[in-house]
Amino acid sequence: MKVSAPSLILFFVASILSIIFRLNGQEMIELYLRSTIIPSLFIYYLVSNNYKISVFRAIILFALFIRDVLVVLKMPESPLGSFVCVLFVYILLLYIAFQDFESFKFDKNDLISVFISIVGISTICYSVLNLKLENLELDFSLYVFFGIILSLLSVFSVLNYIKNSSDVFFNALLMCVCFVVSDIFFVVSKFYFYTEAFALISLITQFLSYFFMVNYFLEKNKEVGELNNY
Predict the structure, then answer these.
(1) pLDDT at 225 over 60
(2) pLDDT (tens digit, 9 = 90+) per residue, 36-61?
(3) Are 181 and 212 in contact (CB under 8 A)?
(4) Distance (Å) of CA 158 to CA 11, 167, 217
(5) How many Cβ atoms from other residues are within 10 Å of residue 128's Cβ?
(6) Cβ contact 154:180 at 8 Å
(7) Where are the domains of the chain?
(8) What is the reported pTM?
């Protein structure tokens, strides 16, 4: 068994148990289990990468951990705090995706792919925000800004994969797909029409997005051959 295997097993066990306890209505146990998910992935990344991690990536994982802690605490400030944490992570990931994007050269043959990606993702974002959302916890403009950042991150991830279909950008693409699906079902189930199925889909894809994000970082390290600044 690899040294990093126990932490990865812990991640999957915690994720599965969180879902099971959610189905059984034991939300408190579910919430406490969720607070172990990011630490287990942090250890997995650290061990897999020879105990090296850039400050940039450490901040991303720490922000996601704070988000999960705020969810567990259920304070009045938790909605704003968790929103800011996730938005901050998306902005940092957008910066990484843009750095990758700048390293590629696009020609006229790529215009159709670029156009379809932008229009498709923008349409999804607009459709969700155009729903008659009720009991919003924050100002609507914040959700619009959040949607724009996530859309840009998704567009760059799709375009990066189109130009280089390596494991690095495949994981980045899966990460963004999970981000989008998780956030869409979160918004729909919380502010439009609640069903347990939507909430579970949001939770499952959230856990998967963490997994693919860490794999994206690890695969990127393998491709670069050394730890870069981000």
Answers:
(1) no
(2) 999 999 999 999 888 888 899 999 99
(3) no
(4) 27, 13, 17
(5) 18
(6) yes
(7) 5-224
(8) 0.90
